[in-house]
Design a protein that fits this description.
With 195 residues, this protein is α+β, with helices and mostly antiparallel strands. The protein has 4 helices and 9 strands; from the N terminus they run αββββββαβββαα. It has 2 domains: 26 residues; 155 residues, no CATH class. Strands 4-3-2-1-9 form a 5-stranded mixed sheet. Strands 5-6-7-8 form a 4-stranded antiparallel sheet.
Length: 195
């Protein structure tokens, strides 16, 4: 095979490889995911939220791997909200619970984390939860309160790196969360870090 034929052959193989990659979706996510999700509030109504996740794959090629959340956002977009929507929530944490507290008349959000590095950066708290309340158009971090212990997650806590359905409905989410680690299924009173 002469040099010109080899070069032409390699160009065609490269082109076909790029087309195959584009059609199969390889590399298309770059760790960014978006979906809409049904969320059942503790008072009964089901609202719709828009979720986005920016993340990156971590680990060794061909070895153990994982995924690190860089930023997650939640926007309440439902037209049927029983109360005005809270502001956009945006943090690198993993949201578990979004609810409207009818006693305090404000929104609350409970989140956790995926990695030991995050736990260490937070000062190694005894429980793996962070709580925010929407006040004056902003999310404010507050202490974990007693009434949250035992509360089940009402948000999808382990989105797949391959993506989620465009609309995550309640039965799908309940099925997916059932397979999650215990700390992602409900707010635990006791927890021991594996870090």
């Amino acid at each position: 095979m002469n040099t010109h034929s080899l070069q032409s052959y390699l160009q065609r193989i490269t082109f076909l490889g790029c087309v195959a990659c584009a059609l199969s979706g390889c590399g298309s996510r770059n760790g960014d995911l978006e979906w809409s999700e049904e969320v059942k509030l503790s008072s009964g109504p089901v609202i719709m939220v828009k979720r986005s996740v920016k993340g990156k794959a971590v680990g060794e090629w061909g070895g153990p791997g994982g995924w690190q959340s860089l930023k997650q956002t939640i926007d309440v977009v439902s037209d049927t909200n029983p109360v005005p929507a809270p502001p956009r929530w945006s943090e690198p944490r993993v949201p578990m619970i979004l609810d409207y507290d009818t006693n305090r008349r404000d929104w609350l959000l409970v989140a956790t984390f995926y990695t030991c590095e995050e736990w260490w950066s937070l000062g190694r708290p005894p429980l793996p939860y962070l709580v925010w309340r929407a006040r004056n158009g902003m999310w404010e971090r507050v202490a974990l309160s007693e009434e949250l212990f035992g509360r089940p997650a009402n948000l999808l806590t382990g989105p797949s790196g391959r993506g989620e359905p465009t609309l995550v409905r309640l039965p799908y989410k309940e099925s997916e969360n059932r397979d999650a680690a215990e700390k992602y299924r409900s707010v635990l009173r006791e927890w021991h870090s594996a870090c």
